[in-house]
# Entry
Amino acid sequence: MNFTLKVWRQKNAQSKGEFKTYHVKDISPDMSFLEMFDVLNEELLLKGEDPIAFDHDCREGICGMCSMYINGHPHGPGQTTTCQLHMRMFKDGETIVVEPWRAKPFPVIKDLVVDRSAFDRIIQAGGYISVNTGSAPDANEIPIPKEVAEAAFNAATCIGCGACVAACKNASAMLFVAAKVAHLALLPQGQPERKRRVERMVAQMDAEGFGACTNTGACAAECPKEISLANIALLNREYLAAKLTSEYV
Amino acid sequence: MKLDSKVPEGPLAEKWTRHKFNLKLVNPANKRKYEVIVVGTGLAGASAAATLAELGYNVKAFCFQDSPRRAHSIAAQGGINAAKNYQNDGDSVYRLFYDTIKGGDYRAREANVYRLAEVSVNIIDQCVAQGVPFAREYGGLLANRSFGGAQVSRTFYARGQTGQQLLLGAYSAMSRQIAAGKIKMYPRTEMLELVVHDGKARGIITRNLITGKIERHSAHAVLLCTGGYGNVYYLSTNAMGSNATAIWRAHKKGAFFGNPCFTQIHPTCIPVSGDHQSKLTLMSESLRNDGRVWVPKKVGDTRPPHEIPEEERDYFLERKYPSFGNLVPRDVASRNVKYVCDEGRGVGASKMAVYLDFADAIKRDGIDVIRAKYGNLFDIYEKITGEDPYKTPMRIYPAVHYTMGGLWVDYNLMTTIPGLFALGEANFSDHGANRLGASALMQGLADGYFIIPYTLGDYLATIGWNDRISTDHPAFAEAEQEVKDRIGTLLGINGKKTVDQFHKELGKIMWDYCGMSRNAEGLKGAKEKIRQLREEYWQNVRVGGTNEELNITLEKALRVADFLELGELMVDDALHREESCGGHFREEYQTPDGEALRNDEKFAYVAAWEYKGPNQPHQLHKEELIFENVKLTQRSYK
Ligand SMILES: Cc1cc2nc3c(=O)[nH]c(=O)nc-3n(C[C@H](O)[C@H](O)[C@H](O)COP(=O)(O)OP(=O)(O)OC[C@H]3O[C@@H](n4cnc5c(N)ncnc54)[C@H](O)[C@@H]3O)c2cc1C
Ligand code: SF4
Ligand code: FES
# Structure
């Protein structure tokens, strides 16, 4: 297969970027999108040009490191990560446009690499259960109904990729925050810090400059881990309930 | 130098308890006077960093990804072992210990393995308290499954994403300490050198991967939790960035390297589809609980699987190992898959694959039960291959997965450099010559949550908080200069071959001669080939760009340079070990029916290699393994 690629090139955070056009030939449909970039980068390197910087690590759809906004969709067509996107999803001869995540709280570092540390700071604000090592009771002391454990698990599978933010016209991080809040609010272990957690995480989310949620649902439609919009409803309820009796923020 | 494993006196079951009592403690008020560097934020590093910070130490943590949450541990699928015996099926600390020692083909230290089994139960408690959503039964209690090589159900799991959930638990504990100011986190930062002065580890030199800035960090102790080195083979199930640089640099500064050739080749991975392949994807071995492995009986049978009748299929694992069947340990399964493919009975376009078939399980339990257990794995498989495993059997082939070798550590997890510790996959410790499924997650968390907090305290209390050097010390300047020179040289070569080309060539040499089966002649040739490749690398590699920017090629070039040295040591180790054990299969040493043939008289030791300088042969030190509790038997899974 052959493709024309229009790729965003930006030397660093300070410089202005621009699209550059590349042609790749003899691409196997079994290649992943990132493997196609590997081929292109090898060529660029041998030609003496700067290879295109992009984030990736596990290439299994679980680390959340790969990004890339492809033909108007975070992680390209389908609900997947870029590393799990295969070239058989594209038409031979197609022109493919590749950009970094576009969101103020995710500044571009170089080419397709962005800074997502805002997500880490939101977790630091409260996305945990305070339990020092060694002080835990026996694991089977608190039974948790299977349905509850499963629901918590579903929310906990968020990989922190940021596709939800990139998909949202307001650059809202609600789906990401909701996933963590729901995961811990559903579990008995998460109860003691429930109110304080949601207040602090939402406050940090606002401080980072993420936009408001207008319930468009673009985030859930693009989330590779199928984090459900219902989590956002849960987050809103949690937040309101916490605010009514707020002691913290 | 004489190796001292520091295994405490006393009966096996009391060693750790006694040892903990004998270790020195750091006074709570003094803990904040100590600085500890933790390199790596996988299960081992994140759990260590969080726990040490909770205790009051000041921690600096490093990882090369953009967030500690993305360490390679995130990708572990199948589960984590613990001797909880919740299933009342005969499990115990002793049995987990025994299975691990036996599974490792008697090449691990009894005392360490027993301690691992002992603290395994605390890990599960800790993780559940953090909110890790393990699978549960309808009654609300934790569910278990059995995993390769075990006849009891002791594996805890979170669907096919156990590593992710455990790591997010450890990451959240770390995040809490980052917020509290007790951990300073340095993401996108790579350790490129260890600083040693007066024989003790004093700090590290790092490169900021965004700006290229080379920085010095000083501390009272350095913990390397940097994972395994399976990427020396280029293709492996490891993440793309997984590398050996941190441990290799430490090795060259005096840390002995233990059993470098012990590599685990995992039987159930998605087969290679072409030259473009950048990594291999594991299909969790939990699949072997319900999937049946088979090939056609006839050589060269090209019929699609559903057209091959039952009586013309060879369920070779069930046939050869009736009592363990499809659940034989990884090394045994991988080797047998290789045999049937070498016989020409492999399947798929490449013929380098066997079937893993769920048809019977789906018939027995229904598709919903199978989907609930393995849904996400089936999805991964379908995304990558374009085939639906609910309808047609998976095709699988072995791939490099885990490195049992690593920095040699004593019972306290300290390397041969005082003040330098190694945790998790980076050390050589607990898995001998073969690791059992679901035991790496256990070991990483055991090291980080429950062992290092005690043993590090003893070291720190012994040296005292004054025993530290500043980053202005000449030892730091010297180490920094070494790094700058190495980078300068690589950038200046401007040759004709890319880093990936070299890496692929190295990987092929390693896979062909130091992979699933090895022989003396092949290994000798491989050594020569690696030397030539390394020489060529330093004359003909092309890196491009500068140091003062995000330079993805330079990052790789530094890692591959170290792989090119480590590869040779692996070959040396494989050549010297004239026996077969676990994942190390020397063709010259096998039983009449093709099983690994150990030589306990000559090789019941840990091979710890000492670096002696550029182009000098390594020196071998032996830590004799003493088995007081288990009897060495020929492993049999028949
Ligand atoms: C696909 C897959 C599935 C697996 N499934 C299971 C399973 O089901 N059960 C099981 O028990 N085990 C499993 N394993 C094995 C297990 O996941 C690993 O052995 C374990 O997670 C290693 O953890 P770690 O903390 O030692 O290192 P890692 O998780 O590899 O972390 C290494 C850390 O070191 C950092 N680092 C590395 N080098 C440097 C450097 N030079 N400078 C700075 N930072 C550096 C990285 O950024 C990272 O943070 C699996 C492995 C794979 C590949
Ligand atoms: S909610 Fe979905 S899209 Fe957003 S960070 Fe998590 S996994 Fe990615
Ligand atoms: S590279 Fe890890 S999710 Fe894509």
